[in-house]
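Supplementary Text 2. Reproducibility record for the structural model of the 105-residue chain.

All settings were left at their defaults, and a single model was retained for analysis rather than an ensemble. We include the record here because the model underlies the residue-level annotations in Supplementary Table 4.
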Amino acid sequence: MISSKTSIDMIETGKRLSKFAKSSSYSVKDIQQYLGLSCPQPIYRWYKGVILPSVDNLLKLSELYQVHMEELLVRTGYILSYDVEKMKKSNMEERIKAYYFKLVA
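Retained model, structure tokens:
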């Protein structure tokens, strides 16, 4: 049986989700309405790292921020030599390298 040693750092993922929202100028209310949530509490809980968004909400957030779903998540104990967030979207070669190193680490 193959065991996975990868897990998601909920605190850092929450910080990243918050950073994407701020850099895209979306308020919690905007995100709440976009996702069709009845209240904003889940979003605040994501930002604090208490819970993670569902896969459906991650997909919607990735579409909203125009990034891959994987860019919204932070792995525990994971060091990436390339900072994907800081790269320009037009620099596809560097983005591919970053994803490659992310996968083989």
